[in-house]
Amino acid sequence: MTVKDLSHHLSNEAKRRNASALKTAFKYFGKDNIVFLGGGLPLSDYFPWDKITATSPAPPFANGIGAKPTNEADTVITEVGKTTDLEFDIPLARSLQYGHTEGQPELLDFIREHTEIIHKIPNSEWDVIVTVGNTQSWEASLRTFCNPGDFIVVEEYTFPSAIETARALSVNFAPVEMDDKGIIPEKLDQLFTEWDPAKPKPKLLYTIGTGQNPTGSSLSNERRKAIYDIACKHDFIIIEDEPYYFLQMDDYKKNSDEPAAVTHEEFLAALVKSFSSMDVEGRVVRLDSFSKVLAPGARLGWIVAQKPLLERFVRLHEVSIQTASGFTQTLVSGLLGRWGQKGYIDWLIGLRKEYTIKRNFTIDSLSKHMPSVVKYEPPFAGMFFTVKIDAAKHPKFASEFGKDPLKVEAAIYEKSLEQGCLMIPGSWFKSPNFKDHNSSEIFFRGTYAAVALDKLDIGLERFGKAVELEFSS
Amino acid sequence: MTVKDLSHHLSNEAKRRNASALKTAFKYFGKDNIVFLGGGLPLSDYFPWDKITATSPAPPFANGIGAKPTNEADTVITEVGKTTDLEFDIPLARSLQYGHTEGQPELLDFIREHTEIIHKIPNSEWDVIVTVGNTQSWEASLRTFCNPGDFIVVEEYTFPSAIETARALSVNFAPVEMDDKGIIPEKLDQLFTEWDPAKPKPKLLYTIGTGQNPTGSSLSNERRKAIYDIACKHDFIIIEDEPYYFLQMDDYKKNSDEPAAVTHEEFLAALVKSFSSMDVEGRVVRLDSFSKVLAPGARLGWIVAQKPLLERFVRLHEVSIQTASGFTQTLVSGLLGRWGQKGYIDWLIGLRKEYTIKRNFTIDSLSKHMPSVVKYEPPFAGMFFTVKIDAAKHPKFASEFGKDPLKVEAAIYEKSLEQGCLMIPGSWFKSPNFKDHNSSEIFFRGTYAAVALDKLDIGLERFGKAVELEFSS
C-alpha cells in the first residue's frame, strides 16, 4: 500500500527548510581515499568518559517492576565503553559525537521492531525517528504543518501545555465535542462538513487517544476507526500523542486482589488499536515516548510516520535539538537490548499490573469517601481519573452562585484545599473557543500515579469531606 | 549595576508565552498539609535504573586529556543512585523525573561558579539556564527576539546551519564586513548608522567571536569592547555563540616542542575577554556549550544572560525541550563535582595544550606543502584554519574563468578531491545578502580537530599538490 502525498499540508516554514550545503561534502566523510578536513568534530579520545555502567532490574520482574535489584539473577548490568562488541550497544565514541540526527541505528532498530510487534502498520512507507520527548515532538509537529493563523482540531478538554505550545505559534483552535468515551466521531465529521470556507480548513487533529489528559477517557477501537475514516474523507492529519499508551489496565473489579498474570499474547491482544495500526494512507503522526514507561528525565521518545514527513522533522531537528542525548541513547539502547523485545513486554506487563492496582484502589477509595453527588467511572488507561458533580444540586446554586457552575467549581477547589487535598478543576483544561454545552456538570482531575496508596486514600477522604461540607452549606 | 529593560526587543511569540495555569496549582506541591493529586508524575520506583556509574580520567591529567584511565590514581568514578549523599550529585529519582526546566540546581551551581571565575560579569542580574546545546539555544534566541521579517546582523562569512535556522524562521540578514581579525567595528557602526529606516532595525548581532566558523579568526579584546559600545549606542543585543571559547591556544612557534606548562592564573589571564565580561547593560546573551570541551553527544550547554530574558527562554523550553537529559545532567554534574572547579580548569588547560599542538603541526605542515600562492595565518582559537589564494594569479583567470574567482574556487575544490583531500570552499559560508568586495581572494576552510596528525599532513600535501597542478595548468 502506497501512502498519500501529504506535502500540501506542510507549513511554509517546513517547505523553506533546506539541507545544509555542507551536507553535500559529507558524502566524502569516511571514504578511504579522501582525507576529510571538512567537519569540526572533536576527537573521541578527548571525551572524558571511558565507560558507563548502569544497574537495572532483570526480566521477568517477578517481584514487580518497582522491586530493587538485589542479586545477580534479578539484575541486568549495562556496560558500554568508547567501543563495544555487542550489536545493540551504541559505543560512546559514536553516541557522544555529532551525527545521527534521526537517532542512533541500534536504538532505531529496537524501536522499529517494537513498533512492528505492537502496531502492524498497514503501509510500507512508515519509519521512526528518535526525539527528545512528546513535548518537543508536538511543537515540531505544529511547526511542520501549521502556518500562523491556521486552525487545528483539539479535544474540547485537553492538556494546557499542548495548547500553550500552539497558542505561542499563533495557531487557532477548533475544539471537538467529547463524551465519557472521548471524541464523538459524528461531531468531528460535522465540524469539517460545516467548516466556514472563509477560514483555512484544519490540517490536523491533535488527540491523546489513550488515557486522555485530563478526562482519563480512552477512544474505543470503533471510534478510532470512525475517526480515521473521517480524516481520510476530509484530508487531515491525525497527531496521536500517546505517552500513556502502555498504561492500559485490566477491567476494574471491586476490592480485588492482585490482577491475574497474563501471557504476552493476552497482553498484546488486549491493547487498544492505535491510529497508526489502521494507517493505510500514511496520515498518522504518532508521538511515542519512554517518559511514562521508563523515565521522563530520559527525555527520549520517537515519532512514527511516513518517511517523507519524517524527513521534514529531521531537517527541523538538525537546526534545533540535533538529536537526543548520547548518554540516554546508549543507556536506553543498552538496557532494551539486554532485556530484548520479550523482556520489554514483561516490563510493560508489570507496568499494567501496577497501574491496575492503583486504579482499582482509587475507585474503591472513591466509593468509600464520596458523597452521592459525586460521580466517577474507572478509567481504562493513563494516570488520571475524574470526579463529576452536578453543580445544580448545590443548595445555593441559584442564590449564591447565580447558576454559574464555574463558581461552584471554584468553591469546591477552595474548600478542598482547606481540607488538605488538591485536584485540578476541569475548567482549567478547556480549549480556547470551547463551546458551552449549557450543562451544569463540573469535574475535577486527580491522579493515582504520583502518590502512595495510603496518602491517596487520605486525599480522597478530604476531597469527599470538602464536597460534603460545600453541598450542605 | 542594574541592567537595561530589553523587553522591547522580545518577539511577539515570546511576548505571547504564558506560564501554564497548572503552575499556579504547583505551589501546593510538596506541602506537608496537602495531598497533591494534581500532577501526572510516574513514581521513581518504576525508573529501571537503580544506579549509574562512569569511569573518567582524573585531574591533573598529567599524561594528557586523551590518556585512557588505567589505575586508581588517574581514574575518577562517578556513581549515582536514585538517592545520593553528595552535594554535587543529582539523584536519579530527581534527574529522571519531570521538573527543573531551567536545569538541575547542582549543575547550575557549578556552572554559575565557573562563569564567575571566567567572566566576572559586571552586572548583578545575570544568571544561567541549562540547554541542550548551542544549536537549540540559537534557535531559541531567534524565536525569543525575532519576528518574521526582522533583520539580524551576522558575520559576512558564518556557520551555514546558523543561517539555515534563521532563514526557516523568515528572518533577514544584514552581513557585517570582516577582515583577518573578524568583525570590523567601524563597519558595524556604519551598518546601523546608515540603516534604511523603512526596514526594521536589526535587534541582534550573532557572532562566533572566538575561533570563528569558518574563518578561524578571533576578536581581540579591543574589538570586543568597541563592538559592545556600538551595541549600547544602537540598542541591539549581542548573541555570542562561544562553543570554541576554551579552544584558545598559545602563540604559534615553528617546529616547536610541546607547549610549556602554565599555571591556573596564567591560563585564566591569557583568555580573551568575553562579551559577557563587559556586559554592564545586560544586553549579551552568551551561548555556552560542553560540546567541544567534553562531548557533543552530551547535548548539554547553557545560556548566560540577564534574568528577565532567561525567563522567556524558560517559558519556551517548557513547551519544547523541557530540559536536558537527566542522565546527562547527573553524569556531567557528577564528573564536574568530582573534578572540582580546579580540576575542570586542569582539563581546559590540557585541551589548550592539545589544540596548540594540532594547530602548530598544521602550520608547519602548510609551510612544507603549500605553493607560494597559498597564504595562511595561525589561528588563535577554535577548530578551523583557512588557506587563502588570490584567484587572479591563476594563469587562466581571465581566459578560462572569465575573471570569476568562484570558478577558480570550484576548480580547486574538484582538483583537491581528485587528489584525495576535502576542504570546504569559503564561498559556501557566505551569508545571504553578502556584499561583494570585488576581491579576487578565495579561501578554503580546513580543520585540525577531527583527524590524526599524520593523516592531516597527507591531506595538506594533497591539497598543496592540487593547487600547484591547477595553477600550472
From TrEMBL, chains A, B:
Keyword Transferase set for record: yes
GO cellular component, one term: cytoplasm
Residues annotated as transmembrane: none
Cofactor: pyridoxal 5'-phosphate
Location of this chain's protein in the cell: Cytoplasm
InterPro entries (alphabetical): Aminotransferase_I/II_large, Class-I_PLP-dep_aminotransf, PyrdxlP-dep_Trfase, PyrdxlP-dep_Trfase_major
Lineage: superkingdom: Eukaryota
Enzyme class: transferase
CDD domains per the UniProt record, alphabetical: AAT_like
Presence of keyword Transferase: yes
An annotated GO BP: L-phenylalanine biosynthetic process
Main location: cytoplasm
SUPFAM superfamilies: PLP-dependent transferases
Keyword annotations of the record: Aminotransferase, Cytoplasm, Pyridoxal phosphate, Transferase
Chemical reaction(s) catalysed: an aromatic L-alpha-amino acid + 2-oxoglutarate = an aromatic oxo-acid + L-glutamate
Domain Aminotransferase class I/classII large: start-end pairs: 97-462
Documented EC number(s): 2.6.1.57
Molecular function GO labels: 2-aminoadipate transaminase activity; aromatic-amino-acid transaminase activity; pyridoxal phosphate binding
Family: Belongs to the class-I pyridoxal-phosphate-dependent aminotransferase family.
Protein name in UniProt: aromatic-amino-acid transaminase
Organism name: Ogataea parapolymorpha (strain ATCC 26012 / BCRC 20466 / JCM 22074 / NRRL Y-7560 / DL-1)
